[in-house]
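Hmm, how's this folded?
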Amino acid sequence: MENPQNEQVLRRQSNWETLYFYQKSKALYQLTYAFAKRYLYKGDRTTDQMVQAARSGKQNIVEGSADGVTSTEMELRLINVARASIKELREDYEDYLISRGLAIWTKGHPRYKRMLDFCRTHNQLQDYQPLIPRMNDEELANVGLTLCHYIDKMMVSYERYLERTFITEGGIKERMTAARLGYRTNQREELKRLHQELAETQAQLAAALEALKPRDH
């Protein structure tokens, strides 16, 4: 007997490649790699730190999505790891700009709004690839900062979604229990139906046998 509750034991895996913050994280990684290799000294620990932070942000989104099939709690933890990596990367970009006397683009800067709009509406790596070789360090760092901001903001919204999912669906133990209870309920209902069918069949048989008895005239 099939159990219609089985499909609720494992959560359906989300396709991380469709998540906008994952798409932006891919662009951020490539941008950061180009920035670090071009503008940081070879052997500088910051080079590896920035590249690894960008990679960690991207990879933990993937791992969290995969683990989320069985554990919403684990997915939340890994999304938090990704957020921490992105925040670390944001600090490195800010430190670079400040230490070299370069501008952090904020409201009032002539290029701020255009950059903000572009990063908000463009998610794919191919949107950024043609620009990366043409940007200087100030431009790359500010685009990196903006991507960090949007990725973190989107991950916060995704965490809230995961929290609501956990509250309404529970973890895998709760889903397994619910599925097992559902299976037992279905068994009881099926057994009750079979007993009812048997009683009806017996009654019909008895009526048929009664009809076949010879009648006294």
In short: Helices lie at 20-39, 45-67, 72-99, 112-121, 125-128, 137-169, 172-212. The longest helix spans residues 172-212. The chain has a mean pLDDT of 83. Residues 6-176 form a domain with the de novo design (two linked rop proteins) fold (CATH 1.20.1440.60).
